[in-house]
């Protein structure tokens, strides 16, 4: 009974985190939800949206609410891998070299405009994301846990950028598109920001031990064999659409989703179930997280572009056409 009560307390704390974030962030509930999915399942988030949508404020505020260390890294063309991971510097007092750790040694990392840095810098970040450790000189240092990277891309201005290769984009658990706010939400933002005396100080609602406990609880969420197979069918439908009667989609899909998509769908669905106070996954959980898991893992060809077919449209068709228990 005590264990059940503990789980309920943790779920209440998640609601408190969202409520506390809502005191500062307006109208980005889906973004907050996906950040928590990534944090509690060990994944990383790629955001795409125009400037001014509170992406930096969101993850900075989240760090305060969760009592975690936060670092923002502005990616630029002249950035070097050492600017991320750190380097060896000479200490005259010791007459020896010592390690100076870089900004990656934090819990929450905002990699702002990641596509503005060259490939070697992107690779250094993505290697740290995958391995959860970095090597400086001859020493290897584990990164602190939890460790979440939220990388942003500006979809408007592409001049002078270095697009992430598909194999590297695949390392992000979710890709979330952030859109403009609705009129009432933007009105609320305007009123808050126009009031120069408005200064809400968020309160810490979760600590590291709570986060580790929530990760353990999410891992225990049940997913039936039928839904496990449904996840596999969805992923295979992106690779072999003709076998699923998706003739039009077969013309447009150049590459389907990787095995990382299957894992991300499983973990993401469990997290959504847990956020909804359930210890079992429903088909709706899989369908809700699927667009964010698949939209950067399905590569469309030039014919799709010519016909104005988008990845979200393809994903929507797959979710409607692939049956559960197929």
Can you put this structure into words, describing what you see?
It is a single chain. The chain is of the alpha/beta class. It folds into two domains: 2-209, Rossmann fold, CATH 3.40.50.300; 223-321, Magnesium chelatase subunit I, C-Terminal domain (Helicase, Ruva Protein, domain 3). It is 48% helix and 15% strand. The chain contains 14 helices and eleven strands. It has helices spanning 2-22, 29-41, 55-65, 81-85, 119-131, 166-169, 183-194, 208-219, 225-239, 247-252, 259-275, 283-294, 302-306, 311-321; strands at 45-48, 70-74, 86-91, 96-101, 108-112, 133-136, 139-142, 148-153, 174-177, 253-255, 299-300. The strands form four sheets. It has a five-stranded parallel sheet. A two-stranded antiparallel ribbon has the order 3-4. A hairpin with a 4-residue loop joins strand 3 and strand 4 (96-101). Helix 2 crosses helix 11 and helix 11 crosses helix 12 (283-294). It is globular and about 70 Å long. It starts with a helix and ends in a 5-residue tail after the last helix.
């Amino acid at each position: 009974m005590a264990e059940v009560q503990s789980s309920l307390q943790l779920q209440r704390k998640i609601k408190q985190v969202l409520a506390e974030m809502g005191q500062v962030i307006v109208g980005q509930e889906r973004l907050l939800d996906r950040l928590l999915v990534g944090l509690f399942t060990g994944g990383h988030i790629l955001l795409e949206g125009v400037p001014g949508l509170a992406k930096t404020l969101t993850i900075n505020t989240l760090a305060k609410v969760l009592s975690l260390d936060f670092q923002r890294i502005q990616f630029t063309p002249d950035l070097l891998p050492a600017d991320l991971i750190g380097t060896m510097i000479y200490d005259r007092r010791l007459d020896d070299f010592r390690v100076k750790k870089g900004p990656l040694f934090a819990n929450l990392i905002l990699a702002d405009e990641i596509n503005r840095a060259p490939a070697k810098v992107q690779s250094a970040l993505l290697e740290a994301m995958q391995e959860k450790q970095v090597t400086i000189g001859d020493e290897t240092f584990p990164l602190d846990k939890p460790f979440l990277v939220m990388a942003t891309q500006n979809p408007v201005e592409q001049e002078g950028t270095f697009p992430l290769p598909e194999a590297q984009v695949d390392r992000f658990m979710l890709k979330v598109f952030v859109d403009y706010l609705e009129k009432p939400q933007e009105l609320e933002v305007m009123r808050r920001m126009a009031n120069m005396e408005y200064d809400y100080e968020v309160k810490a609602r979760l600590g590291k031990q709570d986060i580790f406990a929530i990760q353990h609880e999410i891992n225990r969420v049940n997913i039936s064999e039928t839904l496990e197979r449904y996840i596999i069918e969805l992923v295979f439908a992106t690779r072999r659409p003709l076998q699923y009667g998706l003739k039009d989609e077969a013309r447009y899909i150049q590459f389907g989703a990787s095995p990382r998509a299957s894992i991300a769908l499983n973990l993401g669905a469990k997290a959504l179930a847990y956020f909804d106070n359930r210890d079992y996954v429903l088909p709706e959980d899989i369908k809700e997280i699927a667009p964010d898991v698949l939209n950067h893992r399905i590569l469309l060809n030039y014919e799709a572009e010519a016909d104005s077919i988008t990845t979200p449209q393809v994903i929507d068709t797959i979710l409607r056409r692939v049956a559960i228990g197929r």
